[in-house]
């Protein structure tokens, strides 16, 4: 079995290590962020002192937005398959701008696509517009999380318009943000995927070539060439989620006219006062309020209700106003029973909301 190497999670270091595993000249590796707490989580998940499973080029850790991170084993074939399928969907290889951390799968795959395309990636330093202006490829791509897109729509609109395609992933893209981008002439493509699927594998509801999607009841199942090989040193968990070649995700969805619509996580349906409440639906409704800039809705254990629906909101509307607003289109029993007003939602480096910081 191979030995796993830890490398600094900087773009240059990850690009060198990635080039090595893709051309066969370098050892399997795990990128480690500079933040000491995050680095320790990566080391625990990657376990570099233990023998490495077969068919692994890179070990990435999940974001840990809702629990302890897991080490995800990604093979060279899975990384390349994801890159090639992405280029096919977008209209051909191109030059990529990296505005994300390369120790998460979204950032790593920007570098993989660059290596596969034979083009040098452009690294974001301070200014998104200045970085975009240095690009020389005939086709120009980037990827980012919804929060970045919302920010750049305000500050770097011309630069966004200069890209042939911008992949939006890492978190659900609010409908209002999709509309803003389209009306501004920005080609933003929402992607669904995760570390276990080698980054986004479904673009705008349509699976990439080599990927199949199915449902077990409402649970999203994914099969294809971009799937991970397993969880690091967790064969039981691997066997639980990888069955007959299908990855059993923790997400709920539905197929509408052949397109996948992601509804939310399996555990995003809570029972509050004996009523099933779909938290992402409540969250989506809150985001439609004119005075709500951002929001997340969580279920919190409660002695009276079983689970209390709590909203964390960037904006000033009162609890009573938001409850009435939700009840206009959803059952009043779904309305949040508690609201916390924040200046900004706490975010992980992956671009996901840090739910653990809110609870």
From TrEMBL:
Annotated GO MF terms: ligase activity
Stretches assigned to the AMP-dependent synthetase/ligase domain: 44-207
Domain of life of the native organism: Bacteria
Entry-linked PROSITE patterns: AMP_BINDING
Domain AMP-binding enzyme C-terminal as annotated: residue spans: 283-352
InterPro entries reported in the protein's UniProt record: AMP-bd_C, AMP-bd_C_sf, AMP-binding_CS, AMP-dep_synth/lig_dom, ANL_N_sf, ATP-dep_AMP-bd_enzyme
Name used for this protein in its record: O-succinylbenzoate--CoA ligase
């Amino acid at each position: 079995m191979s030995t796993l190497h830890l490398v600094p999670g900087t773009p240059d270091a990850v690009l060198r290590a990635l080039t090595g595993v893709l051309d066969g000249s370098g050892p399997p590796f795990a990128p480690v962020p500079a933040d000491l707490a995050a680095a320790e989580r990566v080391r625990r998940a990657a376990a570099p002192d233990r023998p490495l499973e077969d068919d692994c080029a890179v070990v990435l850790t999940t974001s840990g937005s809702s629990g302890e991170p897991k080490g995800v084993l990604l093979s060279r074939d899975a990384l390349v398959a994801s890159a090639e399928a992405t280029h096919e969907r977008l209209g051909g290889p191109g030059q990529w701008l990296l505005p994300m951390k390369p120790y998460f799968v979204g950032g790593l795959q920007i570098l993989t696509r660059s290596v596969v395309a034979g083009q040098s990636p452009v690294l974001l330093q301070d200014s998104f517009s200045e970085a975009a202006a240095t690009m020389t490829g005939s086709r120009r791509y980037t990827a980012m999380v919804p929060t970045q897109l919302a920010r750049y729509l305000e500050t770097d609109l011309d630069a966004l318009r200069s890209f042939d395609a911008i992949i939006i992933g890492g978190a659900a893209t609010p409908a209002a943000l999709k509309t803003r981008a389209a009306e501004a002439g920005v080609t933003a493509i929402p992607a669904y995927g995760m570390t276990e699927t080698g980054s986004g594998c479904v673009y705008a509801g349509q699976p990439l070539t080599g990927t199949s999607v199915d449902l077990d009841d409402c649970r999203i199942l994914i099969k294809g060439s971009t799937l991970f090989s397993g969880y690091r040193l967790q064969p039981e968990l691997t066997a639980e989620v990888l069955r007959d070649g299908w990855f059993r995700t923790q997400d709920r969805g539905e197929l509408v006219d052949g397109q996948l619509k992601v509804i939310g996580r399996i555990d995003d349906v809570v029972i509050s006062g004996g009523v099933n409440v779909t938290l992402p639906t409540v969250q989506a409704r809150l985001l439609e309020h004119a005075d709500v800039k951002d929001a997340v809705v969580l279920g919190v254990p409660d002695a009276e209700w079983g689970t209390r629906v709590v909203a964390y909101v960037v904006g000033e509307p009162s609890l009573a106003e938001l409850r009435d607003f939700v009840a206009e289109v959803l059952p009043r029993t779904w309305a949040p029973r508690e609201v916390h007003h924040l200046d900004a939602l706490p975010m992980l480096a992956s671009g996901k909301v840090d739910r653990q910081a809110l609870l």
